[in-house]
Amino acid sequence: MTTPTLLQMTAPLREAFDIPYHDLGPRDRPPRVALVAGLHGNELNGVFVLSRLAAFLRDLADGLRPGQTLEERVLVIPAVNVLGVNLHSRVWPFDKIDINRVFPGLEGGETTQRIAAALLKLTRSAYYRVDIHSSNPDIEELPHVRLYEPNDDERASACLFGLPAVIERPLNRIFSTTLAHAWRAHGGENFVLQAGKAGDLQPRHCEELFRALVAFLQRSGVIGGLELSDEEEDLHYFGLRQTYALLSEQAGFFVCRLEVGRWVQAGQLVGHIYDGFTGDIRADVITPVAGLVSSLRRQPLLFEGDMIMRIQTLDESGNDVEAMMHGQGQ
Ligand SMILES: [Zn+2]
To answer: Could you tell me the distance, in angstroms and rounded to a whole number, from the CA of residue 329 to the centre of ligand 1?
Structure first.
């Protein structure tokens, strides 16, 4: 079978190249699910996980897993920014444009506009749509579902992934040019998944992401005959006023031993900021609120005002209601 392509592009001095995708399951129906990763070419967790998931779904479709079936049609686009993945680049390498800032795109426009238009055209007929990101190279994200002004169906379905957190965020003007925003005009249910950090691969997050996607496909009736492990899922839903961004009041070297996914207490010492020359401690980093650490700075060089971590609170003590862009990677 030939591999379908999203778009074929010609280049001045080499053969044409294209963006391949997987079209799996019964072709005579509209796609039930569209899974997208690699809009940003340096966010490798999603690219890797979707390529592995496509292999798994291909086996189901080919009957290689007795008793397990692919009941619905699924589109999998592992690497939209295919050149960026090859060059470790977030943006489209030729013109440095961020593909997730040009939606809904334009047929007959610049290359990135054509990619956006083709991707939207391909995916808009699916009922469930999932766009997978990592954060930027400085911040690590706990694998979670992110919802932007969701409806009640999306709130309910977001829990089917079984990830440790579902986090609601407000829409803002910058996000009006993202794929997730463009999907909203076409109904259905739309999700952004965040996992890990850009620049390299975090296998632990990849495993969690893979399990989450399989759980979602099983629970939404797309794949059949699969037993999910009955591992206890510890899922929390966080509304708009439940995100607290801890910002640094000091420049320096930030050192901490926390991991994303850990719970912290109010007043807990979570790290230190050192003077990078004298080695003296400039500040203790103390969390003013209790909650789940969903984002954590991994780049130690800190300027005043940089985000150190994002904490999801169980009450409404969040301060991050204005959709600050720190490390969104999206
Ligand atoms: Zn991204």
So the answer is: 4
Q: CA–CA separation, 158 vs 80, rounded Å?
A: 23
- Other CB atoms within 10 A of residue 136 CB: 22
217 CA from centroid of ligand 1 (Å): 22
Rounded distance from Cα 155 to ligand 1 centre (Å)? 22
**Residue 292 C-alpha to ligand 1 middle, in angstroms?**
22
Residue 101 to residues 151, 180, 191, Cα–Cα distance (Å): 24, 11, 17
Q: Report the number of secondary-structure helices (H) and strands (E) in the chain.
A: 6, 20
**DSSP secondary structure code for residue 97 in this structure:** B
The contacts of residue 269 (CB under 8 Å, 6+ apart) are 284, 285, 286
Q: Domain map of the chain by residue range? A: 5-236, 243-312
Averages of pLDDT over runs of 10 residues in the chain (330 residues) are: 86 84 96 98 98 98 94 98 95 94 94 96 98 95 95 97 94 81 95 96 97 97 87 87 93 95 97 95 96 96 94 88 55
pLDDT at 326: 47
Q: Confirm or reject CATH 1.20.140.10 for domain 243-312, answering yes or no.
A: no
Cβ contacts of 199 within 8 Å, gap of 6 or more: 42, 44, 88, 137
How many Å lie between the centroid of ligand 1 and the Cα of residue 84? 12
Name the CATH superfamily, with its identifier, for domain 5-236: Zn peptidases (3.40.630.10)
Enter the tokens of residue 106: 């334009």
The pLDDT value given to residue 9: 85
Backbone dihedral angles phi then psi of residue 87, each to the nearest 5 degrees? -110, 10
